[in-house]
Amino acid sequence: MGRKTGSHSEITGPRVREAALRLIAQHGFAAVSMRQIAAEVGIQAGALYNYTPDKQSLLFDLMQSHMHELLEAREASRTRGDPLEQLEAFVRFHIRFHLPRQRAVFVSYMELRNLAPDNFSKIEQLRTCYEGELQGILDEGHRLGDFEISDSKITTLAIIAMLTGICNWYREDGRLSAAEIEADYWTLVRKSVGIDAAEPMRHRRAV
Question: In terms of Cα–Cα distance, which of 98, 178, 94, 101 is closest to 137?
C-alpha cells in the first residue's frame, strides 16, 4: 500500500518526533509503544519504521536534536565580557532557551537512564560541552577573585540543575512572569558565587 497523500518524510518525520516527545513526556519512555506513537500520528504501526529503526533510536534522536539545538543557539548568542557579565548572559540564555521547551527538557533529563550505553555516552559528551562553558566562566571568575566558590564542577552542576528545574513548575499563566523568574534566579546564582549586589567584585578589583 502506498503512503497517504501528505505523509512523505518531510511532513511525517517531524510529526513522528513531536508525537513521541509528547507521549514520552506524558507517560514515560517505557510505557509508550511504537503502536501508540503511530496512532498519535495517524499512520499504520508498520509505516513508523520508515522514519525510525526502533524506539531507542527515536529517543536518542529527540535528545540529540535538543542538545544540538541548544549548543547552536548558545554559540549564536555568546558575547564577550568579564566573568560576571558572562555568567549573567549564560544564566539568562539558559532560562530563555529552556522555558519554551519544557517537554524536551523533561525527556532529555528524565529519560537518560533509558538510553543504550553508546547513545548515553554521546549525549553525555554534548552535555559536558555545554556545562564546560559554565565551568570555564566560574573558574575564570574564581581566578580573578570575583567569585567565591569551593569547587567549580559542583557549582556548575548545582547552577544547571537549579535553572533547568524551573521547567518542572513554570506555567505561562502563573503568579510570576518569565522575566520576573529570570531576574529572581539571576539573583540566586549571583549569591551562589558569593555576590550579593550586581557588581561589587568589579569595584573590589579596581581598589
Answer: 94
In tens, the pLDDT along 101-114 reads 999 999 999 999 99
1-52 maps to CATH 1.10.10.60? yes
Domain coordinates of the chain in residue numbers?
Answer: 1-52, 55-206
pLDDT band at 196 (very low <50, low <70, confident <90, very high): confident
Q: In the numeric block, which cell numbers belong to residue 73?
A: 543557539
Helices 117-143 + 83-98 axis angle, to 10: 150
Name the average pLDDT for the chain.
90
Q: Please list, residue by residue across 3-21, b when 16 or more beta carbons sit within 10 angstroms of its beta carbon and e when fewer do.
A: eeeebeeeebbebbbebbb
* Mean pLDDT of all residues in 23-34: 96
Residue count of the chain, please give it: 207
CATH number for the domain whose boundaries are 55-206:
1.10.357.10
Determine phi and psi for 21, rounding to 5 degrees: -60, -45
Alpha helices in the chain (DSSP H): 9-27, 34-41, 55-77, 83-98, 102-110, 117-143, 152-164, 178-192, 200-206
Does the fold of domain 55-206 match that of domain 1-52? no
| Whether the Cβ atoms of residue 170 and residue 98 lie closer than 8 Å to each other | no
CA dist 123 and 120 (Å) reads 5
